């Protein structure tokens, strides 16, 4: 960078001071003691074509951008122009390679990959009247270290070495804890973990639930303001069980017999309802509900309360989103006993069901190009104002605005996939792989937007298309297999890390 030496500038002011001292008082020049920066702006950031606002903190004498530049912008700001640098004297210096103060020429590029200290000289300091009338500022250009649109995953821990989860499981958030249920060695255990400090989940045997049976559904609900929230669960005996701690259970008297599944809970206008399915004497499934203000079992009135054949029968997953009319609505998926096909093809799909407290509606697409493919044990989340679905095998994630029309999510919003061409096996700490995994459970913490996935110990297998010959670009299919422990993973969109950090969460 070309710079002018300060000695030349200072000598000019000294000469000016001597000359004006010899003139009449009416011609005296007043030298300013102002050594502050009044305006600062960088040139547009390369190909991004965006001007970023910089804050000048006069108290700490720092100049910085609150909105960080995009990831990899450090390759642009290594040689960037300062477009505006306004001071009273117009003289700003920085240290040269010899450690001397040299005037910055803003017509030359400057390296701002690291914080830069500059010194502002008042005209009094330059004229020698008040040599100490200077101020130093630090320019810091903040750049995102991670792509804000990427889903960032972190391996947390194994689930208990002594009693690892090996088969099917179900997880639920209860208070500040994640409770994970699984049958190990013919006993039903619950693994308790804190949402703020997810440990290795010391297992405890449950009491009161059917022995050696994984609950078919688990839901949290609060029936009135005078009671605490309780856990409610169903089993294959068609009874509902309740618990205050997730360990000790007893048969609930709040529900009748023949309850097959607890489906979802929904709150609108300060009234909550719990929806569930019961089997009638005719073996037909029916929708029922109860509300927090009135503990009374009520069958849905539309279509005589009958549950459609395509409605899920197990592995229910649901999320809550707010509609355009400012009403909370349930979006639900699960495993079905009947095939669900796109209307114009034989492609199997995952159907989303919506519920606003009045009626269950099937969100099925009529197009084979805007459908969500069939997932086993699907999970659905409303996340960053979009709806996402994924499931066993963890090969892809699909996204939708409202749950009707779907497309494959951006490659940045995905699960960890390793490069198998380098050989070896996956290492969760440095070389993770999700593809091919089956038994899992998932919860989403609404406060931190952390997505928690708990895997059961087991073997994973999937097929991958790889390039056979670089010269011909032909491909072949390779089968990948590997073993993995029962593991806990945390994921969150990078943009939400930034937003919540600003909010102090």
Q: Can you describe this structure?
A:
The protein has 505 residues and is mainly β. The chain is 6% helix and 40% strand. The chain contains three helices and 35 strands. The strands form nine sheets. Strands 1-7-6-8-9-4-3 form a seven-stranded mixed beta sheet. The two termini are 42 Å apart. The model is unreliable at 10-24 (pLDDT under 50).
SSE blueprint and pairings:
Layout: E1 4-5, H1 6-21, E2 37-42, E3 55-57, E4 62-64, E5 82-87, E6 91-95, E7 101-103, E8 116-121, H2 123-127, E9 134-140, E10 151-158, E11 169-174, E12 177-184, E13 187-194, E14 203-205, E15 217-221, E16 230-234, E17 240-243, E18 250-251, E19 259-268, E20 271-279, E21 285-291, E22 294-299, E23 314-322, E24 328-335, E25 352-355, E26 360-363, E27 379-383, E28 386-390, E29 398-400, E30 407-408, E31 440-444, E32 451-455, E33 458-469, E34 474-484, E35 487-493, H3 494-502
């Amino acid at each position: 960078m070309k710079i002018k030496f300060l000695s030349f500038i200072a000598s000019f002011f000294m000469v000016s001071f001597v000359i004006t001292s010899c003139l009449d008082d009416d011609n005296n020049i007043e030298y300013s003691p102002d050594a502050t920066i009044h305006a600062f702006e960088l040139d547009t950031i390369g190909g991004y074509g965006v001007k970023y606002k910089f804050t000048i903190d006069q108290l700490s004498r720092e100049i910085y951008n609150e909105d960080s530049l995009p990831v990899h912008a450090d390759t642009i700001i290594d040689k960037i122009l300062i477009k505006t640098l306004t001071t009273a004297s117009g003289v700003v210096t920085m240290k040269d390679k010899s450690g001397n103060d040299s005037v910055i020429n803003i017509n030359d590029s400057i390296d701002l990959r690291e914080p830069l200290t500059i010194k502002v000289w008042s005209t009094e300091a330059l004229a020698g009247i008040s040599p100490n009338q200077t101020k130093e500022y630090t320019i810091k250009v903040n750049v995102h270290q991670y792509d804000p649109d990427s889903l960032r995953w972190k391996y947390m821990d194994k689930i208990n070495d002594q009693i690892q989860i090996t088969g099917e499981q179900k997880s639920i958030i209860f208070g500040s804890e994640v409770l994970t249920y699984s049958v190990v060695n013919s006993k039903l255990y619950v693994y308790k973990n804190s949402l703020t400090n997810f440990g290795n989940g010391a297992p405890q045997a449950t009491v009161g639930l059917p022995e050696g049976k994984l609950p078919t559904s688990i839901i949290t609900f609060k029936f009135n303001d005078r009671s605490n929230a309780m856990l409610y669960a169903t089993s294959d005996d068609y009874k509902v069980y309740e618990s205050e701690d997730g360990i000790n259970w007893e048969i609930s008297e709040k529900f009748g017999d023949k309850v097959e599944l607890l489906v979802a809970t929904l709150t609108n206008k300060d009234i909550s309802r719990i929806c569930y399915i019961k089997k009638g004497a005719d073996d037909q499934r029916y929708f029922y509900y109860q509300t927090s203000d009135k503990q009374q079992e009520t069958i849905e009135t539309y279509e005589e309360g009958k549950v459609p054949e395509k409605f899920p029968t197990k592995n229910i997953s649901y999320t809550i989103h707010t509609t355009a009319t400012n009403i909370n609505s349930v979006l639900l998926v699960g495993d079905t006993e009947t095939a669900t096909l796109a209307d114009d093809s034989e492609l199997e799909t995952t159907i989303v069901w919506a519920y606003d407290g009045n009626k269950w509606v099937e969100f099925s697409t009529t197009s084979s190009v805007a459908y969500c493919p069939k997932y086993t044990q699907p999970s659905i989340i409303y996340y960053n104002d979009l709806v996402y679905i994924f499931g066993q095998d963890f090969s892809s994630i699909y996204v939708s605005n409202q749950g009707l029309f779907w497309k494959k999510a951006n490659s940045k919003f995905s699960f960890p996939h390793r490069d198998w061409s380098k050989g070896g096996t996956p290492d969760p700490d440095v070389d993770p792989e999700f593809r091919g995994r089956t038994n899992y459970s998932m919860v989403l913490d609404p406060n931190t937007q952390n997505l928690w996935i708990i895997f059961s110990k087991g073997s994973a297998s999937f097929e991958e298309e790889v390039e056979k010959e670089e010269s011909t670009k032909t491909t072949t299919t390779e089968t990948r297999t590997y073993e993995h422990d029962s593991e806990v993973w945390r994921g969150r969109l990078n943009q939400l890390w930034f937003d919540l950090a600003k909010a102090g969460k």
